[in-house]
Amino acid sequence: MFKKLYIIDCRTEAIEIRSVLLLYLEGEKMSDKILAINAGSSSLKFQLLEMPSEAVIAKGIFDRIGFKDGKVKYQTKRNQVQKNVCIPSHEFAVQVLLGTLVESGEIHSIEEIVGVGHRVAHGGESFKGSVLVDEKNEEIISDLGDLAPSHNPISLSVIKSFKTHFPSIKNVAVFDTSFHQTMEPVHYLYPLPYSLYEKFHVRKYGFHGISHAYIAETVEKIFQQEEHAKENVKIISCHLGNGASICAIKEQQSVNTSMGFTPIDGLMMGSRCGSIDPMIIPYLVERQKMPIHEVKKLLNEASGLLGISEMSNDMRDLIQAVTKGNQKAILAIEMFVNRVAHTIASYIVDLDGLDALVFTGGIGENAALIRSLVVDKLQVFGMSVNKELNENGSLYIQDANSKCKILVVQTNEELMIARETYRLSL
What we know:
About 35% of the residues lie in helices and about 20% in strands.
């Protein structure tokens, strides 16, 4: 069978989109491959992995989908291509991606892809884990759109694109919330009338679950390889980036997490406010006459590091500004560090101790200064870092006197999505 698709011509390193006829569902199956998809409102990140070896075959991103100044990055072991190109829709990006993978020789036929794993932001209370997407699950994901209006509808549209154009491929939904479904009511309920939970499902859901699950699995394996292996490690995972959250983990399960009903709750973030007095919102609306849509935008896009520093939501910019004595940058960093340390301290109580403090995410993995400042505030718990190990980005960064291990682990959400997808696609 032949099917009309679109490709990025990697052989000539031209990024022109053109129509071609590609072999579809023909040819000998060479190996099992999984495609991990992370779709945003105007982007589509992907990784193609060979399983079960977990080798990355190709990866990239379609950025600014729907805009004239769109960008495509496509990387394999043989090629690395980047160019501005207009991608009108996520559906078109899906066709370009699959066509390019075949045409460039990364796969010999579409049939080699046994499953596509999709990051889905919100699974509500309906999904305790990853699922194959059938009609029933499609409908549930759609119904949960009100809880994640900027994310779930996009993910669902991409899933439908794969099912429409490539019906032989299994689609798996991997939820950012499902890892936190092990939390007890004492941690996930808000002190509001219980009827709000019963009627409207108002509760803490937590996010970054795919990342925190990867950290839990990875750190457990690291500890098992040690001479005096310890089981059921008590972990606090700090996913610190433009979006930031912390998760208390025990026996490979989420005990508590900082993000709540929405991803705006908890820590101070790049441009999100984190936890604030909720009465600030009616004060701004009723007394200062701010329209509610402006308040929502302020809380999501103009607060956090950006709001306090009045210069950037990027921690790298603030660290640079600190060296020049910028007082607002200093204040923003101090507030960020303070909230991270306070949350870690409270989660030590939830876990009744701590074996491993883990830093991950863009800030957690790369900002040695922030790691050092956070741990300095936790000295009362017997934590301390080795300056040289911390600045060199070692796996372990604690010094000899620290009462718990302190690690820097690069998160890999795409690999976690691929593992879940492969498990459900066999």
